[in-house]
Amino acid sequence: MKVRLLDIAHARSGDKGDTANVGLIALTPAWYPVLVRHVTQERVARHFAGQITGDVVRFELPNLHALNFLLHGALDGGGTFSLKTDAQGKVYSTALLRLVLDVPDDEARAAGLPEA
Amino acid sequence: MTGFTSAFTLLSPQGADMSGEQGGADRIVRVASGQGFWGDWLEAPRRQVEGGQVDYLMLDYLAEVTMSILQKQKERDPRMGYARDFIGAMESVFEAVAHRGVKVIANAGGVNPGACATAVLEAATKHGYRGKIRIGVVSGDDILDRLDELLAAGHELRNMDTNEPLSTIREHVLSANAYIGSTPIVQALEQGANVVVTGRSTDTALTMAPLRHEFGWADDDWDRLAAGIIAGHILECGAQSSGGNCLHDWRNIPDLANVGYPIAEAKADGTFVITKHPGTGGRVSVPSVTEQLVYEMGDPHAYITPDVVADFTSIRVAEDGENRVRVHGITGAHPTPFLKVSIAYRAGYKAVGSLVYAWPDAMEKAQLADRVLRERLANLGLHFDQILSEFVGANATHGALAGDGHDAPEVQWRIGVRGTDRAAVERFTREIVPLVLNGPPTVTGFAGGRPKVEEIVAYWPALLDKRAVTTSVSILE
């Protein structure tokens, strides 16, 4: 089943130098394991392929039902160097939420995920 | 290391058991956030001291880029270099500070805390509060004049991102400040300051310091210090934890016009509740607080500050009534032997200009304009380190993920250049507007004329042995 990340999570993003971070938070605690299983470091790196020059690193925050992604080389140099509109990575949050997941039907039904 | 003393062993922690004389374990200290950056809502500080009881007003003015801006201002006028909004903020809260015991803690000092404190005192005098305002000025974070001495002593100040040594840009350095922690702020409060002005204190120390002072937390009470830091992280961006810029359920967040800024109600045990004043707009909820917790996060296991390393994976949050979120369970660990240093240096020039292309075929016209301009820049023989084009309305923020901009009702073509040759950047700024008459059709949005050339003051993060930095506190009244 296709599931839009936008329908099962919210997010906020920011910067540290040339790295953007995206904190991805499950809309309900029951959907956090879905994020852990499907929104992997590799999947996110594929999503942003061509838009960032460095690696993607993922951290888990189970208490907050959240994942934190570091997107290295995402900000065209970052800070005052960057010529980008979003030089501080403020809207990488919803760029990640564009991701559409392929979740096995039984898993999606068991978790009560909304279909895209 | 001759001549260097440790600032972080000077503090003698207050007695461990102060709960009796200070109201017991249930005593609550309220720290209110009144500014999240320089440029934040001018109304917020006054609303925080008038909307209900608060003990401390925390005002965060500094971001990484802010220090560079302040440094440029200080170069033009040696009495400048601090966040001037702070003077107006103080004027709006003098009454509460002078007569209701509210204390203000602000990193408004920027690269000139002494001048900032002097300006506050002048304002206090003008408004009849002289004698009621006791300002603690924290200094020692500014290491600009000591850079060569530090380099000679073997501190390489390598860039944390690129690992290059500072010597590669030494002659371009404009400012250099160590991020200092809560200790000198606590010292200022111990000396009876009711306004504390710092330079490059960490944002989180502005909240943690008053809690450490009030509750007498020992300087190795890692869990409580970490709790204070996390309270600070939630408060440091103003309304961003109380409904502002909140993606979760954004349509239904009430009354943003009247948004309440966050307040931490903290207890001696290191637990706290995030709330806001009654009758204000916005929303304090688990989602709104969690969005702020993950903001600008690196490795959540190790949120490094000068005082403590906080573990964000330990945080537990729970709803505690309407617009109240209880935060508990926080753990921390021994800090590192380093302070982070923020160095600003001249790094060339940039300019960004834009034009707006209208339907039909807005994107194709904007792309044609972009090709035409790039060809003209090349024909003029201009060289840049970088040229970046974005198409606002199509792909400026989400890139290729947003599609190709086909059939957009309008597209803002935005083009910027960066380079070390100022004349080339200057010439670029003159090449955009002519396209209105000599480029693709249905173009508008040029009323701003030629864009300005900006000098780039870039940011160089580095680490420095803590023992190389000595902070001090002076009192002005």
What does this molecule look like?
The complex is a heterodimer of chains A (116) and B (477). Chain A is an alpha+beta fold and 116 residues long. Chain A is built from five helices and six strands. Chain A has helices at residues 5-8, 32-38, 41-47, 92-97, 105-111; strands at residues 2-4, 9-16, 19-26, 56-61, 66-71, 100-102. In chain A, strands 2-3-5-4 form a four-stranded antiparallel β-sheet. In chain A, strands 1-6 form a two-stranded antiparallel ribbon. Chain A starts with a strand and ends in a 5-residue tail after the last helix. The model of chain A has no long low-confidence stretch (mean pLDDT 96). In chain B, β11 and β12 form a beta hairpin. Chain B has twelve helices and 19 strands. The two termini of chain B are 35 Å apart. Chain B is globular, with a radius of gyration of 25 Å. Chain B has helices spanning 44-50, 64-76, 85-100, 113-126, 147-152, 183-190, 205-215, 222-235, 286-293, 362-379, 422-430, 435-438, and strands at 29-35, 56-59, 103-106, 135-139, 173-178, 195-197, 263-266, 272-275, 303-304, 309-311, 316-319, 325-328, 331-333, 338-358, 386-392, 410-419, 443-444, 454-465, 472-476. Chain B has 477 residues and is α+β, with helices and mostly antiparallel strands. In chain B, 27% of the residues lie in helices and 23% in strands. In chain B, the strands form three sheets. In chain B, strands 11-12-8-7-1-2-3-6-4-19 form a ten-stranded mixed β-sheet, with helices on both faces. In chain B, strands 5, 14, 15, 16, 17 and 18 form a six-stranded antiparallel β-sheet that branches. Chain B has a three-stranded antiparallel β-sheet with strand order 9-10-13, with helices on one face. Classes of the chains: A alpha+beta (116), B alpha+beta (477). The interface between A and B is large, with 43 and 51 residues.
